[in-house]
Amino acid sequence: MILAAARLVSVLIAFISFVARAESRVVNLAAPAASLSQLPFYVAQERGFFKDEGLEVNLIVMGAPVANLALIGQNVDFSSVPTAALSAMLRGAPLRVIFNAFYRPLVWLYSKGEIRTVKELRGKRIGVAGIGSGPDHLLRELLRQHGMDPSRDVTILGLGVQSNLFTALSTGNIDASVFVIPGNFTAGDAGFFELVSFIHQDTAQFQGSIVVRDELIRTDPQVVEKFVRGTIKGLFYSKANRSGTIAILARNLKVDEKLAAKIYDIGKSAMTVDGSVNESVQKKALDFVARVQGLKDPGPVEKFFDFSLARKVSDQLQAQSWKP
């Protein structure tokens, strides 16, 4: 089923690329959902930062497993799904995380009102957007911490986009669900109970990343640098211009500006300074994914992360006194 979806994505991407402007370099980015984690890309798109770099960027929403397959299969140039990518890298996939917008998980677990503790999830059905995604990993680790085996003690269902998760929870087809912004607000407003706010947990998990194939770094380093530069400009703007960013967020998430402001304010504290994270946080994020997969020693972090380009671009922009 995932492979069939990946083939459909390939056809869609080919069509989008065909109709894009010929004078620009077309870049396809796979994103797992319309959410706050994609904020630097939204801003770079709307503010013309990608255009300034000569790029025509297509942000294509697809589930994390499909996005990962699309990246590995060269159907997209970049993805923003680092957890699924790290899982694949641990199995030998030649990928690299080279930029990261958020270093804490913007993820919440909501349940029916009668379920008030994580242990009460035993025997229940829980929804996630995609099996193998970052939120799925967080859920499984949480269940283990509370003495449950995720493969036996609960049923975890990959249901796709946030609206599917909310519908399944509302109709009783699942008992709890993992949401990203703005799904958490929708669930809370509907009266569902917030079991866990992962942003307040002692967990490092990357979101809004740039993941790229090692091959593209070798064969077209210029387009990689241009894409990183446009994205970092989007990150800098996001951090410096609250009102403008809220308006962009509202348009892309299709919410009103009041809700967009709540979303922005709750997520800003989890944003990185320049698109990079230090080695200790890299190791913490990597060890988390490896632990979920039952691996004790994932190897050195430089096999998985390389933030040297993000730091270089950030330094250049600051030396040029670039202002968003």
Describe the structure.
The protein has 324 residues and is of the alpha/beta class. The protein has 2 domains: 2-104 and 204-319, D-Maltodextrin-Binding Protein, domain 2; 107-200, D-Maltodextrin-Binding Protein, domain 2 (3-Layer(aba) Sandwich), CATH 3.40.190.10. The protein is built from 14 helices and 10 strands. A 5-stranded mixed β-sheet has the order 2-1-3-10-4, sandwiched between helices. A 5-stranded mixed β-sheet has the order 7-6-8-5-9, with helices on both faces. Strand 6, helix 6 (134-145) and strand 7 form a beta-alpha-beta unit. Helix 2 (39-46) crosses helix 10 and helix 10 (221-240) packs across helix 14 (308-319). The longest helix has 20 residues, at 221-240. The model has no long low-confidence stretch (mean pLDDT 90).
Primary descriptors:
324 residues; alpha/beta; D-Maltodextrin-Binding Protein, domain 2; 5-stranded mixed β-sheet; 10 strands; 17% strand; globular
